[in-house]
Amino acid sequence: MDRIVLAGLEFHAHHGVFAAEGELGARFVVDVELFLPLSRTDDLAATVDYGAVYALVRARVTGERFALIEALAVDIATRLLAAHPPLRRVLVRVHKPHAPLPGVFRDVFAEVVRERS
Predict the structure, then answer these.
(1) Which SMART domains match (predicted)?
(2) Which CATH class is domain 3-115?
(3) Exposed, middle or buried by CB within 10 Å (0-12, 13-18, 19+), for 102?
């Protein structure tokens, strides 16, 4: 299956279980992989407008607080499939590189895959 990838979308948002996360916020990074049949047609109507995809992701990440990045990833994936009929499958990763963990780490992320039924 063909795909369009939006990688490294960065936002300041207020997700997390702890009160301080809600007050201060943190950086979140989202990757989206859109699976759909692509054609040689040079027409935006024949594909998915990734500007609209970006706007949807930004609105979900910055517009509502989620306790869990897992829930945020599922929300984004579900809404992308609903908003863009050409999509057959989506993969969404929500990274929380500054998660409140008591050690050294590079990244924490939740990854979900949803397919059109």
Answers:
(1) FolB
(2) alpha beta
(3) exposed
